[in-house]
Write a structure and sequence with these properties.
By secondary structure, the protein is an alpha+beta fold. It is built from 5 helices and 11 strands, in the order E-H-H-H-E-E-E-E-E-E-E-E-E-E-H-H. The radius of gyration is 23 Å and the shape is rod-shaped.
Length: 185
């Protein structure tokens, strides 16, 4: 499992310039900052979900969406932050596109060989299974590793853009608050 925290700190000078430019008070700036953080977290979660579905070759995004959580973190007084949690445990083979083939003493699927495995149905779903003991039962699902591919994609594609996404949302929030008087007293 992996947790990624994103904290974007705006210094007082930058806030003063923005407040003068758009005639906003400090309370409105902090509200815009908070809303921009929330929107950034949603955007990053959406980008992650869409990109990882294609990268991993998943049949659908249901299990992936359950493994991506965002939560708000109260910082050390320098502003709010958020964390995105990614569940990176191995996944059952039936979640991936493709068809497993029995080869020799095991099963091959998406470039992985599973010795001692066989193709069967579990709860009506065709999957790759392996016996835990020499007896016919118990059996277990074969799990596919995903952590390395997820880490590379998230670092290279998603989190590189986090600051630009935040600034775009922050500027849009500031403009909207100045134009429509949102949060003005």
């Amino acid at each position: 499992m992996s947790m990624v925290g994103l904290h974007i700190d705006l210094n007082g000078e930058a806030l003063d310039k923005l407040s003068e430019r758009f005639a906003l008070d400090e309370r409105q700036l902090h509200a815009a900052y908070s809303r921009a953080l929330k929107r950034t977290a949603g955007t990053l979660r959406s980008m992650s979900s869409k990109g990882l579905k294609g990268l991993l070759g998943l049949r659908n995004t249901k299990r992936l969406r359950r493994r991506i959580k965002t939560r708000r973190v109260r910082g050390d007084g320098s502003g709010a932050a958020f964390e995105i949690w990614y569940g990176q445990n191995d996944w059952p083979a039936e979640d991936f596109k493709g068809r497993p083939t029995e080869a020799g003493a095991g099963v091959q699927f998406l470039g992985h060989s599973f010795e001692g495995a066989f193709i069967g149905r579990l709860s009506g779903t065709r999957t790759i299974l392996r016996r835990k003991t020499a007896r016919s039962h118990p059996i277990e699902r074969v799990l596919m590793p995903v952590k390395d591919r997820m880490d590379v994609y998230l670092e290279d594609e998603v989190f590189d853009q986090a600051e630009q996404i935040f600034m775009r949302h922050f500027e849009a929030e500031i403009r909207a608050r100045a134009l429509f008087g949102i949060g003005a007293r």
